[in-house]
Write a structure and sequence with these properties.
Layout: E1 39-41, E2 52-60, E3 64-66, E4 74-76, E5 79-87, H1 92-101, H2 110-117, E6 119-127, H3 131-137, E7 160-162
Antiparallel strand pairs: 1-6, 2-5, 2-6, 3-4, 5-7
Bound molecules: zinc ion (ZN).
Length: 170
């Protein structure tokens, strides 16, 4: 009986990746113009467990009606949306993005209604960053719903932005 092929000392089995292999989880997603350099992650496990800011990329397949307190009802148009947020609690960016990427959850924040109606494609992460600075860097983008996620901000009109696709696809 032939001997099993010798194992090289020091090698360990690599965990199997789920889904397609990503050569570099940071470089393959084109970022909106003006966004500071940040790593794009599609899996919360790729995010650090430290505090920081993030920019979610959400695609909305159909119009979504949203009502904010003391504001008129607004219908978000289908397409690409960006949401700037921050994670300061336990588990940092990793824990927060795990929640955003989960497809089943009890809606707690307004953004949960958007992520449940659409698909979270991933997020750019900025350890130690500030979400309002991300909004300021993307000030050229359209605000579909003033007041969304920005009630505690001094300068932001909204933390939800519309990022149009040039060639008309989602
Ligand atoms: Zn803000």
């Amino acid at each position: 009986m032939a001997a099993a092929p010798p194992h090289k000392p020091g090698t360990v089995a690599r965990p199997r990746r789920r889904g397609p292999a990503l050569p570099d989880a940071g470089a393959d997603e084109p970022a909106p113009e003006g966004l500071p350099p940040g790593r794009f992650i599609r899996d919360a496990g790729q995010a650090p467990d430290s505090p920081g800011a993030y920019l979610l990329l959400i695609t909305l397949p159909a119009p979504l009606r949203v009502v904010l307190p003391r504001r008129a009802e607004v219908t978000l148009p289908p397409g690409r949306l960006l949401y700037a947020g921050s994670a300061r609690g336990p588990g940092g960016l990793r824990a927060r993005l795990a929640r955003h990427l989960r497809t089943e959850k009890t809606p707690h924040w307004h953004i949960d209604r958007v992520t449940l109606a659409g698909t979270v494609q991933g997020a750019w992460v900025f350890p130690g960053g500030d979400e309002c600075a991300l909004v300021a860097a993307l000030a050229h983008l359209r605000v579909p719903l003033p007041g969304f996620g920005s009630t505690d901000c001094r300068g932001c009109v909204s933390h939800l932005l519309a990022w149009p696709v040039e060639d008309g696809e989602l």
